Amino acid sequence: MTVFSTKNFLHAGMIALGICSALMTSSHAQTNAYPQKPVKVVVAFTAGGTTDILARIVAQQLTEKLKQPFVIDNKPGAGGNLGTELVVRSPADGYTLIVNSVGPMAVNSTLYGKLPYNPLTDLVPIVQIADVPNVLVVNPSVPVKTMEEFIAYAKANDGKLNYGSTGVGTSSHLSSFMLAKRAGFNATHVPYKGADALKDLLAGRIQFMFATIPSVMPHIQAGKLRSLAVSSLKRSRSMPDVPTVIEMGMPNFEAGSWFGFFAPKGTPDIVISTVNKAVNEILSSPAIEQQMVAQGADPVGGTALQYGQFVQRETDKWRVIVKESGAKAE
Fold first, then answer.
1. Phi (first) and psi of residue 156, to 5 degrees
2. Are 153 and 143 a contacting pair, CB within 8 Å?
3. Which range (82-91, 122-131, 144-153, 290-299) has the least confidence?
4. Going by C-beta distance under 8 Å and a sequence separation of 6 or more, which residues neighbour residue 327?
5. pTM for the whole thing?
6. Which among 198, 196, 191 has a CA at the least distance from the CA of 174?
7. Contact residues for 304 (Cβ-Cβ < 8 A; gap 6+)
8. Candidate from 33-37, 152-156, 189-193, 276-280 with smallest mean pLDDT
9. Alpha carbons within 13 A on the beta-carbon side of 282
10. Is 94 left (phi over 0), alpha (psi -120 to 50) or beta?
11. Which end of the chain is more exposed for a tag (fewer CB within 10 A), N or C?
């Protein structure tokens, strides 16, 4: 017959409590781990566009780094509003995220008058992926080689030049509007659907436009278009020899596109911090930086707070410009 003393009983109880505590801690840690299953990454535009390309580059790396699939789901429509609203209405559990851009996040709330959601409050910023500057390009038939020459030519031919864009209220439209307003000349806006604008610019039916660097780089290199300036704060790593509009004497002229991760409002902090940390690590990779620069994108990164403040500033800026331009969604 075994006799347990009070001391032995207490010792055994303490061991049992320790084991239970360790099991609970382990279980709690597993519950809080993220991600534990595949993550859907919505892109509110068609496959093959800049948003889609950048999202796929980062999603592939997130899959490898976080050991769960980050799967791109293209949901285009209504200038990015359709896919954005889909994410706004999704569960805030971290398993539906969106890589979004300047249009849906900072322009459309003014351009469309009234959206069924507020991108500033219904989505949580996670991290900025990249900036993609617009570049001012002209058809070689326009007798200019510098920004100064172009502005002088536009003023001398006030109201006679046509500029294209990929649609009313797009970055390409508003960039040209800003330039004409700041430089003091008039030109006619001709909106197109997507790549049709570039076709007419190459054919000489329109004289100039702001376009994303990836879309026009081959034509610039082939001498079919002439680049004059980029619309970013700093020179693009993709086109380091092309000056900024700011360098050409227009302070604070920043009108490019940008891209980054967002999550539905109420998404747990662990999701935000995990994805932010992972994306920053991905963007610091020389191989990924080289891949993005080849696409005409400048990697950014930073904290979620910095990204949120940036989006707010962009929304305030574009609200004024959209109203001044009179642009309304078609």
1. -70, -25
2. yes
3. 290-299
4. 111, 168, 169, 173, 174, 177
5. 0.84
6. 191
7. 124, 125, 126, 127, 272, 273, 276
8. 189-193
9. 27
10. left
11. N
Mean pLDDT of the 172-187 span: 94
pLDDT: is 103 or 14 the higher one?
Answer: 103
Domains and CATH numbers, the chain: 39-131+257-325 (3.40.190.150), 134-230 (3.40.190.10)
Q: Is 257 left (phi over 0), alpha (psi -120 to 50) or beta?
A: beta
Residue 162's φ and ψ, nearest 5 degrees, are -115, 140
* Residues 167, 307: Cα–Cα separation, whole Å: 26
Q: Minimal CA–CA distance to 148: which of 254, 256, 251, 249?
A: 249
Which neighbouring-strand residues pair with 313? none
Which pLDDT score is estimated for 215?
Answer: 85
What confidence tens digit (pLDDT) does each residue in 191-220 have?
987 678 999 999 999 999 999 888 898 899
